[in-house]
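Q: My labmate handed me this sequence with no annotations at all. I'd like to see what the chain might look like in three dimensions before we decide whether it's worth expressing. Could you predict it?
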Amino acid sequence: MSDALGILGGTFDPVHFGHLRLAEEARMRLALERVRWIPAGDPRHRPAPRVSASHRLAMVRLATTGHEGFEVDAADVESAAASYTVPTLERLRGELGSTRPLVLILGADAFAGLPTWHRWRELLEFAHLAIACRPGYALDARAWSPELAACHRAATTDDPATLAHRPAGAIVEFAMTPLDISATAIRASLQRGERPRYLLPDAVIDYIAAHNLYCQN
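A: Here is what I predict for the chain of 217 residues:
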């Protein structure tokens, strides 16, 4: 196990077992020391979350409680600034130093959309990128922008051990167990008055019920 730190950001609206499995498989397959969960406070790249940042942070804390390989970072939630990935990585570099490997965990769809991200070309200056892929399905570079495809060709490695040897700059792919769970479907289920058991932790379901979240259209 290296001292590489996985970074998993998102709105987590709400957090569910798909998120948890992604973090755990990245930690195991990439030999990460820990995975740091970073709920976005004010994400500008996607539609506004349905519930407040404080509620989403509380649900992530409940979902990750008891897992010694997970930690939760509340700084983006507590900040008044808009949430963007590169400024978050800059902050982490200031806190953790310039030599610790940081590994930003992304789904394949998120990676394909990187050219729409704020300052996306700078990501590899601060962290490695780990792309979660369905087993047996290769990434399709034909669907990417030419600039993203060129970045992928230049930085990709087949050896996850590479991540431990330098702080940033590599792209690695790893296979993830496919789970057909979406926050959108969970919110729709909650709006219908259903209890979406086995899609997210019971502690999170209880929190949603206690605070009457997601019940309005």
